[in-house]
Amino acid sequence: MKILVINAGSSSLKYQLYDMTNESVLAKGLVERIGMDSSILTHKPTGKEEVTEVSEILEHNTAIRKVIDMLTHEEHGVLKSVSEIDAVGHRVVHGGESFTDSTLITGEVKSEIRRLFDLAPLHNPPAIMGITAAEKNMPNVPHVAAFDTAFHQSMGEKAYLYPIPKVLYKKHHVRRYGAHGTSHFYVSHIAAEYLNKPLEELKIITCHIGNGASLTAVQGGKSVDTSMGLTPLEGLMMGTRSGDIDPAIVTFVMNKEELSFSEVNSMLNKHSGLLAISGNSSDMRDIENGVHEGQPNETLAFEMYEYRLRKYIGAYAAAMDGVDVIVFTAGVGENSSFVREQVCKNLTYLGVEIDPELNSIRSGDPRRISTPNSKVEVLVIPTNEELVIARDTLRIAQENKK
Hints:
Strand content: 15-25%
Distance between the termini: 16 Å
Order of helices and strands: EEEEEHEEHHEHHHEEEHHHHHEHHHEEH
Largest sheet: 8 strands, mixed
Shape: globular
Structural class: alpha/beta
Radius of gyration: 21 Å
Strand order of the largest sheet: 5-4-3-2-1-6-8-7
């Protein structure tokens, strides 16, 4: 069974095609600059040369057609016909309280995703555009939505409710939802497999740190707390997002600077974090270079980032009354040995001890970077959200056939 996984952004569309008989990737790619006359399609068929095509792609429907054309291309394709695609999985960031699992996409499901636009204005609208375009071009196969928030629906009220008037939860569903759920789910399961220990017996802190970043306390295989909240703005300091701040800052700055709601929202989401403190970049690689060169702004940005990340690890160790495993994943977590080193050297009170040589190794496989004497296992696990979506899509498509 062949599954196409789609992750649609406002001006981009990522895709991977899986052969689920062995979970192998047949092809993957990215459409960038959708809405422009110089859009770029990068297509990577397994075992063949990468192909790049520049053309006018003004909307997602055309982007999907281009992807299908490339997947079925006589020279660069991996399929003889689009009819070989058995189901399509779509990444959707916000599922609110409505979805505790991936689900078959219906008219009602799309309506609910639209209703949640306010909670994920940067992510859910593009997801609907991608779903609509894919359904139009592949109408005879099941389409499945996989939600970033679903894994966190296991949190209890003490973790997901905010200490504000409860009527706001009852009327508007204001609560913690979290994000990156497919990643936290995947790496926590891989951690248990790697250590050959029952997931149900482990207390794991998963650190998904990229340009967007979140931590999750996973106890017994379930999310019991997570750092992102009602929206992906809460929690850690990120590339361009502020993370946790005093809520009064919003009204204070709006009044002093005469900013509109949309302007202050843009400030907190797009012009804060590493970018704001360094003044130069939201990319951790640039920040690290600045630290090594002795640049004061980059050094301060890094110190704030590491300090806040370490505080959350400590909080989640307290929340679970201990921690057995800390997992680093995503762009920064997988690739920055410097971030891992600086965080872990300040976790000695937990008994964390990492091996500098193991930490310096770059690999695409799960690996341990802690010493044999460390009381906490520290792992680096490459995330694979697309595979989680493909597995869920296969499961739901097969259930739909019954």
